[in-house]
Specification:
The chain contains 15 helices and 29 strands. It has 637 residues and is of the alpha+beta class. Strands 11, 12, 13, 14, 16, 17, 18 and 23 form an 8-stranded mixed beta sheet that branches. The longest helix is centred in the middle third of the chain and has 18 residues, at 317-334.
Length: 637
């Protein structure tokens, strides 16, 4: 979850984009120019406490040489079928030579900052300049007055208005972060049944395949009577699909020999599980797959980790270990011969995840990047959006595809009060992967619908509605990011003019989720065990894995931004998800204590697309599943 960020309108972002494409913002004074949207969005409801007296640590982001519009144009051209530049990607060295801010620009920016009394450190590739110093020096440099404020339960320091740069540098600086110390964090998009930081085991009352276990052939272990649900018999949930089951279902019919060999899939998360390779290898061999070959799995780790004990649950290291485990094991399941390179952020703060993207782009060894985390809603600071987008665009220019989980809160109306999409999935330069509830049998995928879950509990011998909306795949129309041209050209009708989400979908429902293996902490002791897990955190690596086969089939070179290809073909290669072939829900049986039967069992029904939201499933592109789920035709086309 991203907290305490500034929402802006589509019109405002369009104004910012136009400014970045060429002319700078209008001068606030003859010698200075405001940085667009650099004033904190919470100022209207914040309370000023007095002057700030501490230090300032900020990051000044430099515009790509030629402007953002030029970078956007190149990234689009190299990613769009039919373009003369299609798949004529840059190397990392070529990108930096073409788009890095010039030495003269960097010199002018650092002279301005150091001349005000700040210490300046320049990024090796001229993406930004880090500054540090006293509040007075920052006030002087940016033409602001930084004070202490209270807002939304926090005490922070921030400027009372927009930051400015010298008029001569108006086109050189696109954003500044850090003057406002309000934190911005993200969280995993997993739905693990048990506590994020503790061990969990599934009760063994479940099916090897969808529909293979029912109350008729597997009575409740404590003798409970499990009645019909809405007049129909429904099955127990699967125990969790294994790698071979998922691969066989989605990739049946793919060209023989395609297994991801020669392709590198990057994964980003916060922190790094110390047992990840051992866990992934054991899981693979226990479920009938091959362990990683020597060198097939690698990691890019920061020198240290921060905010481990920040008090933010989403920054808990163990809570992120399960996310990393799911990502690695899901990619390996779908692309057993692909290389996997894991890039760890040193915390769950946006700035640290952005650093992983810079490493990925500059190393330039991965062709696709899966990201199973994000914020709640897309009310993202304009400065932060520009930071993310610049790195997504660099990736696209180099042939690197970024894919993101679309979120696990449906249309977000329950969480934020009105329908919203989630960022970064709503960025037009990434592919948003939504979620399905998926019935897999030995015959393959026999049924799919959108993932929107209501929960019913067993009460007095009847199923009683407990939670009308429990969780579901993210989707809808962005209120802050304009609909991209590739969606307009495909006939997607956005009612508010915003980016439509998701683009595609894969299995995500925890009730029909994946079985994973992880070393967990059980009553104080570490031990390996398996459990079923879901969320669009599963959908994103599944899609990245099957797309690795497509990249292999294309000769191993990357595809860049995938969306122009997907929308130009109107979703060719994707199975249109219409809700057919699957029950209304499944019965889930859990241990009361999450570990064993000593405290008994608890029973619930989790519905398939049973929760009422603004999202719908239908023929063609829809707000729950996009163009549908990837199949062998996506690989082979």
């Amino acid at each position: 979850m991203r907290k305490h960020v500034l929402g802006v309108s589509i019109a405002v972002l369009a104004t910012v984009a136009a400014a970045l494409g060429g002319a700078g913002a209008a001068n606030a004074a003859p010698t200075s120019s405001p940085i667009p949207n650099s004033s904190p969005g919470w100022l209207a409801h914040g309370t000023k406490l007095g002057p700030a007296t501490g230090s300032v640590s900020a990051r000044v982001y430099l515009a790509p040489k030629g402007g953002m519009a030029a970078l956007q144009a190149l990234a689009t051209a190299v990613s769009t079928p039919g373009s003369a530049q299609y798949r004529h990607f840059l190397t990392a060295a070529q990108y930096h030579a073409k788009f890095d801010a010039s030495a003269a620009t960097v010199s002018a920016v650092t002279s301005w900052l150091t001349g005000s009394g700040l210490k300046a450190t320049v990024d090796a590739n001229h993406r930004y300049v880090d500054v540090a110093g006293g509040v007075g020096a920052a006030d002087k440099a940016f033409g602001v007055t930084i004070s202490k404020y209270a807002h939304d339960g926090m005490t922070v320091q921030a400027p009372a208005g927009p930051a400015s740069v010298p008029a001569s540098l108006a086109g050189a600086v696109i954003a500044v972060n850090g003057l406002d110390t309000t934190p911005s964090v993200v969280s995993p998009k997993t739905q693990k049944p048990g506590p994020p930081d503790g061990g969990f085991r599934n009760a063994p009352v479940c099916g090897t395949w969808y529909g293979s276990a029912t109350p008729a052939n597997m009575p409740a272990p404590d003798g409970s009577n499990l009645p019909l649900f809405e007049g129909a018999a429904i099955p127990y949930s699967p125990c969790g699909y294994t790698g071979p089951q998922l691969r066989g279902a989605y990739e049946a019919g793919a060209t023989a020999g395609l297994d991801g060999k020669g392709v590198t899939v990057a994964i980003t998360d916060a922190y790094a599980s110390p047992t990840i390779e051992a866990d992934a290898n054991r899981y693979a061999t226990d479920t009938g797959d091959q362990a990683f070959a020597t060198g097939q799995f690698s990691q890019s780790l920061p020198g240290s980790y921060t905010r481990v004990n920040s008090g933010q649950r989403q920054c808990s290291m163990p809570g992120w270990y399960g996310e990393e485990t799911l990502d690695v094991e899901a990619v390996h399941a779908m692309a057993p011969a692909a290389n996997i390179r894991y890039y760890a952020g040193k915390s769950c703060y946006d700035a640290d995840l952005l650093d992983t993207f810079a490493r990925i782009n500059d190393e330039n060894v991965a062709q696709i990047v899966t990201n199973s985390w994000g914020g709640v809603g897309d009310t993202v600071k304009p400065a932060l959006l520009l930071e993310y987008q610049t790195l997504f665009l660099q990736g696209a220019a180099q042939g690197i595809s970024y894919v993101f989980s679309s979120g696990d809160n449906g249309d977000e109306a329950t969480a934020v009060g009105s329908p919203q999409t989630d960022y970064p999935a709503s960025d037009p330069y990434v592919t948003a992967v939504g979620g399905t509830s998926t019935a897999i049998t030995p015959d393959g995928v026999v049924g799919e619908t959108g993932w929107q879950t209501s929960k019913y509990v067993l009460s007095n011998g009847a199923w009683t509605l407990s939670t009308s909306f429990l969780y579901g795949g993210g989707g809808g129309y962005s209120s802050n990011i304009a609909e991209p041209q590739y969606q307009k050209d495909a006939g997607i009708q956005s009612p508010n003019g915003g980016r439509a989400v998701p683009d595609v979908s894969m299995d995500a429902d925890p009730t029909t989720g994946m079985l994973v293996g992880q070393t967990q902490t059980f009553t104080g002791a570490a031990a390996y065990d398996t459990y079923r897990i879901g969320g669009t955190s599963l959908a994103s690596p599944l899609f990245a894995g099957i797309t690795a086969l497509k990249i292999q089939a294309e000769g191993g070179a990357g595809l860049g931004l995938l969306n122009p290809l997907i929308y130009t073909s109107r979703g060719a290669g994707f199975h249109d998800v219409t809700g057919a072939g699957i029950d209304s829900g499944a019965i889930r049986v859990d241990f009361v204590n999450g570990l064993d039967a000593s405290n008994g069992y608890v029973y619930s029904v989790r519905t398939f697309n049973g929760a009422t939201t603004s999202l719908t499933v239908g023929t063609g592109w829809d707000t729950e599943t996009g163009w549908g789920s990837a199949r062998a035709a996506w690989v082979n086309q």
